[in-house]
Prior knowledge:
- The structure holds 2 protein chains of 2 kinds.
- Chain A has a single domain, classed as CATH 2.40.50.180.
- In chain A, the strands form 2 sheets. Chain A has a 6-stranded mixed β-sheet with strand order 8-1-2-11-10-9, with no helix packed on it.
- The longest helix of chain A is centred in the last third of the chain and has 22 residues, at 166-187.
- Chain A has 4 helices and 11 strands.
- By secondary structure, chain A is an alpha+beta fold.
- Chain B has 5 domains: 3-135, Up-down Bundle (Four Helix Bundle (Hemerythrin (Met), subunit A)), CATH 1.20.120.160; 164-335, no CATH class; 344-398; 400-580, Histidine kinase-like ATPase, C-terminal domain (Heat Shock Protein 90, 2-Layer Sandwich); 585-712, SH3 Domains (SH3 type barrels).
- In chain B, the strands form 5 sheets. Chain B has a 5-stranded mixed β-sheet with strand order 6-8-9-11-10. Chain B has a 5-stranded mixed β-sheet with strand order 19-12-13-21-20.
- Helix content of chain B is 48%, strand content 20%.
- In chain B, helix 3 (62-79) packs parallel to helix 5 (116-133).
- At the A-B interface, strand 4, strand 5 and helix 4 of A face helix 14, strand 20 and strand 21 of B.
- Chain A: This is Chemotaxis protein CheW.
Amino acid sequence: xxxxxxxxxxxxxxxxxxxxxxxxxxxxxxxxxxxxxxxxxxxxxxxxxxxxxxxxxxxxxxxxxxxxxxxxxxxxxxxxxxxxxxxxxxxxxxxxxxxxxxxxxxxxxxxxxxxxxxxxxxxxxxxxxxxxxxxxxxxxxxxxxxxxxxxxxxxxxxxxxxxxxxxxxxxxxxxxxxxxxxxxxxxx
Amino acid sequence: xxxxxxxxxxxxxxxxxxxxxxxxxxxxxxxxxxxxxxxxxxxxxxxxxxxxxxxxxxxxxxxxxxxxxxxxxxxxxxxxxxxxxxxxxxxxxxxxxxxxxxxxxxxxxxxxxxxxxxxxxxxxxxxxxxxxxxxxxxxxxxxxxxxxxxxxxxxxxxxxxxxxxxxxxxxxxxxxxxxxxxxxxxxxxxxxxxxxxxxxxxxxxxxxxxxxxxxxxxxxxxxxxxxxxxxxxxxxxxxxxxxxxxxxxxxxxxxxxxxxxxxxxxxxxxxxxxxxxxxxxxxxxxxxxxxxxxxxxxxxxxxxxxxxxxxxxxxxxxxxxxxxxxxxxxxxxxxxxxxxxxxxxxxxxxxxxxxxxxxxxxxxxxxxxxxxxxxxxxxxxxxxxxxxxxxxxxxxxxxxxxxxxxxxxxxxxxxxxxxxxxxxxxxxxxxxxxxxxxxxxxxxxxxxxxxxxxxxxxxxxxxxxxxxxxxxxxxxxxxxxxxxxxxxxxxxxxxxxxxxxxxxxxxxxxxxxxxxxxxxxxxxxxxxxxxxxxxxxxxxxxxxxxxxxxxxxxxxxxxxxxxxxxxxxxxxxxxxxxxxxxxxxxxxxxxxxxxxxxxxxxxxxxxxxxxxxxxxxxxxxxxxxxxxxxxxxxxxxxxxxxxxxxxxxxxxxxxxxxxxxxxxxxxxxxxxxxxxxxxxxxxxxxxxxxxxxxxxxxxxxxxxxxxxxxxxxxxxx
Lengths: 188, 717
């Protein structure tokens, strides 16, 4: 009941966006910014490597990796945010995230996201969560579930189902691919 | 597991089995008319109906029992040869089959009792059968009345019928031995009621030569008793020596024993034991029969059934019933041995695991190659060959003959030809051709479309056929065969063929083709696969709406297959579907471009040649022909140093050859296909991915879409 009230209180400020719930989060660094994912959607963390590129895909789809016999697509989060490709360094890792596809009868798909470094698992309480600002973070506001205060700095709580929406990414790749082809044709 | 759950499980099995049996029944019925020796078929159909009736009875599904009983009776008269196979009979029985399917599906949906609309439909169907059952209804009526009367009287206490028939000729010396025949008959009366007794005195000599101490009389007794045969026989234990005693079930009780034999458990398959169990013979009679059989010199030739009949201990119909039961038990046993039911999911899991095993063993072998350990390499090699064998036999598990899918069309063709008023026969070939279960499941719908189309548009009306000098009966054939790692399914008709000009005109009208474009026949025929394309002048119930052929093509493409059309005007059309044998594993050819590896399906690869001096043209000469090629490095935007000598892999699609330029040829491999998923669904030219022995993911090149993409967009990168 209190939670419901909180959401309603914050709705006008949050401009209709869902606010993140309290709970455990996995924090990671990417492009100097601190982000967090709900612990329940994070499956595992692996080292970056052995990635196979898939042609004709936008830059934010890095390719696919072999995760113990399954082929898992890897998304470059920084590129998805429109900030250019993530440079690969020693500590670069891949977080395997489970996404639920609502459009396709709730089937789940595993996706990997490239991160500069994985930090820690933290407990974030409801009072530490602020609604996302409508601008200023440099990424699309609907990608953000909320901002969590932690050690005097803000952690961006990502909305996994939006950021890693397979439908949206597939559409984007198709459109991007078409535009590329068009450019190619003009160039040719 | 509670009793309810057990019942539910059992009911589920009943539904599955009954539906299978009904399918068999339908197949049998459809083949009945053309079979020159239909008796085996009729038996099979009868057994199916009988089994369903029996199992339905176990579950107390009385409406199914009642309906099936009538069908079974008709089949029984057919089996006895009292009824002949006729198209009308088949036409009457087929809807009954359908109705039984409905009833059984009703059970699986949870309503065990027949609702009234079903019953009305059932009544109509049964009325249709009635005429076959009683060709002379008057006589049958009286017969029925007769039995009912008799039954009434037996119920009323005035017994006029018995259940045992005894023939007794006492031994000549029995009186001398102190045995009075009369006392035995009196004792017999304590077991039940003697309904009638006839004395035979024909053995009695003339008075002067008669010996008063010798027994001459014979008796025929009809006994009504609840006692079993062995008990009755035991009455005469003291006089058996030298006497002639036969105890037989009364003629009108035979059906009861036949039923008893049919309902026996299945553990004893010996004829004698079946008869013994049902109580029509006794242990002693069986033993004597067996002794007689043993005594035959040099070889026991007569069968125990024949001997028992000869010895008059049992009637022929009972032996027949037992023999049939014996056959049924054997059949059941044989079927149990032949196949076991396995959950398809478990099988898929096994195939998945074996796929992983293939990948891991390839990785192990790769490591072995890198080390100098020869023994390890040898061990790896034997593991790999074993794993390959395991994989092949695991894939075999999923293989089913395409015949079951084809046979379903017998009915479809029959029904549709009736609907269209055309006379069309279906010819099936290559029914034994085996194909992966997943392919079989998905090919049904496209085939249905093609068959309907061929019947509706392809095959002309009878008048027109005769005019064109063709037989009035149209022929549709379904054929399947294996061809270089693929299964080919052909749907062909002997109809009018595709109208090339009409298709072209329509395509121009729809703006699919530029007017005046020079197209080959193949290209024009392929236009019918375009969405919304139909040349039918009239839209019929079945086809002609222009929805379908594009769906067919898409469905087949999803199965990694291709479809071709071959048509001769006035002669007919053949649609040829080429499908991979399995969807899970392909034979591939591995090639390297830059730092990445790609797999090209081996059945697409024709040959490999070296790229001649690179003059930046995208074609080369191959034995006097022009071979256009695609530079995978450019297409896939690979950077890094180019190999000194590039190679060209010549691939083929629909008779069109093209080259793929790669850096390295890495040889053949068998590999498990991993779908790439929705995210990559639009990527043209990549059909999936696979995991190599090194753990690296390699993309599988989809040659047809790659070539098509090049044709539509010839200026990449």
